[in-house]
Amino acid sequence: MSTEDNDNISNDICANCGKDGNLKACTACNMVKYCNRDCQIAHRPQHKKECKKRTRELHDEKLFKQPPPDDCPICFLRMPSIFKGWRYQPCCGKVICSGCFHAPVYDYQGNKVNQVCPFCRVPAPTEEESNVRSMKRVAASDPIAIYNLGCYYRDGMHGFQQDHTKALEFYHRAAELGYTRSYCSIGNAYYYGRGVERDAKKASYYTKLAALEGDVPARNNLGVEEIKAGNIDRAIKHYIIAVRGGYADCLNKIKRLYSNGHATKDDYTQSLRAYQEYLGEIKSVQRDKAAAFNKMYEYY
Fold first, then answer.
1. Backbone phi, then psi, for 67, in 5-degree steps?
2. Is pLDDT at 281 greater than 80 in this prediction?
3. Residue 10: which domain range?
4. Count of domains forming the chain
5. In the chain, which residue ranges form alpha helices assigned H by DSSP?
6. Per-residue pLDDT reduced to its tens digit, 153-176
7. 25 is a domain residue
8. Which three-class secondary structure state does DSSP give residue 68?
9. Structural domain includes residue 194
10. Residue 101 resides in a domain
């Protein structure tokens, strides 16, 4: 019996020498086990092809998995994916939907309270006070506030001089603290060479990190990357995930691919249904009212 047969029959013995005992799995594919590193090295020529194949499969299983959506902490409805659909509150560090942001707020006696945070009920700040609060959140290591500060440096906003190097530093810091949206901005920095040397591999790496955590613009970027590489099928997979996350532009891209014969009718139908389901999950009366009040609060 060959050692490759051992791969397929049992995972309780060493794939090289056939002994059992204190075995360790191949860290790349987790398909076979070895007594020690010497056995792993000796078996590498036979295992290399299957290992690489399984590693690619595991990578794609993870890459093309739909991440769970976030919910608004007030209404508990699915949070809209586009930035117009939600607001970051520098007073309490919460992210709430635009519908809750603009809905009437009442105290415990049922009296309407004006100009307060819908979550923590702190009085709404002036623009100057808002900047002060944001910097306090930065000092408290709030990752969203730190990310926003990076954006201020990137765009030269709110009194901060444009500085792409500083922006990148804050993006990395926010990512380290758990704000995965920062990875997309880091990827863009490497892609366009903003504050750092252009590096396509690093751009792709950070964009994938963001996409894995549910960042739909990052998922769109991966689709565009695959289109440029000629991998239409993989691009469509990325686009469909982005559509399920509410990215309407990817629905239009799939429609164009279908019109040009590069995507199937099933691909377009699947994406169209996914987007309709997304709209159904994020829709609410108070969000519609906020959107009707001012176009800048549209959430889809």
1. -75, 155
2. yes
3. 3-48
4. 1
5. 3-9, 37-63, 98-102, 127-139, 143-155, 164-176, 181-192, 200-212, 216-228, 232-244, 248-259, 265-282, 285-293
6. 999 988 899 999 999 999 999 999
7. yes
8. coil
9. no
10. no
